[in-house]
Amino acid sequence: MKITNSEFLMSNKDIERCPKPNLPEYAFIGRSNVGKSSLINMLCNKKNLAKTSSTPGKTQLINHFIIDNIWYLVDLPGYGYARNSKSNIKNWETMIVSYLTDRENLLCTFVLIDSRIPPQLIDLEFMEWMAENELPFCIVFTKTDKLKATELKKNLDFYNRKLSENWDALPIMFISSATKSLGKTEILQFISDTNKLFTVETL
What b/e readout covers 95-127, taking b as 16+ CB neighbours within 10 angstroms? Predict the structure, then answer.
C-alpha cells in the first residue's frame, strides 16, 4: 500500500466527538520524544502532517487524520509527561484509556519504543495493560538508524528476552527509521492486510 492522500481531520479530547467509526482506525502512541510525529510523517510521505517538537508532551489531544479516504490514523498523547501537572496527566490518562477501550473501529495500536535504550518500566506496564484488556497492538522500534547493526540486534534481543519473561507469545514487531524510511513498507502492508478484515467483519 502507498498513501496518496493524507489530511488532518480533527483534534479533541472526547471520544464521543471522534469521527463516525465507519472506517478502520490505527493509533500511534509512545513516550515523549520517541519519534512518533516523525514516523507518522514518514508513513504518509508528508513532512508536516503531524507536528514535530523538541518539547516533551506537545501532543495533548486525540488527533485524527484521514488516509486515502479509507482509514483513520490517530496520533495519541504520549505517556509519561514529566513536566506537566498531575491533574493534566490524570486527565490525559483518562482520555487515552477511554479512547483505547471504547473506540469500536480501532483495529490496532502501534506502541513506539526507542530502540536505543533498554526496556523502560512505563513502556512495559503500558503494554501489559493493553494485553490484559485484550487490545491488539504492535511494537514499532524507532530511531534504529542511530545504532550500529550489532548494537541494534543486542538491544532488540534484550527486549525480546524481557518480554518473554511474562508473555508466551510476543506481539508483532517492526523496525523503523523515519530518516531512512525503514519499516514503511512493512507497516503499511500490515495496515492494508488488516483493513481487509474490517471490511469482512462489517459486511
Answer: bbeebbeebebbbbbbbbbbbeeebeeebbebb
Radius of gyration from C-alpha coordinates of the chain = 16
Class of domain 6-201: alpha beta
pTM of the complete model: 0.90
Domain boundaries, the chain: 6-201
Q: How many CB atoms lie within 10 A of CB 157?
A: 10
pLDDT tens digits for range 103-146: 999 999 999 999 999 889 999 999 999 999 999 999 999 999 99
Taking 70 as the pLDDT cut, the residues of the chain under it are 51-59, 80-92, 199-203
71 SS3 class:
strand
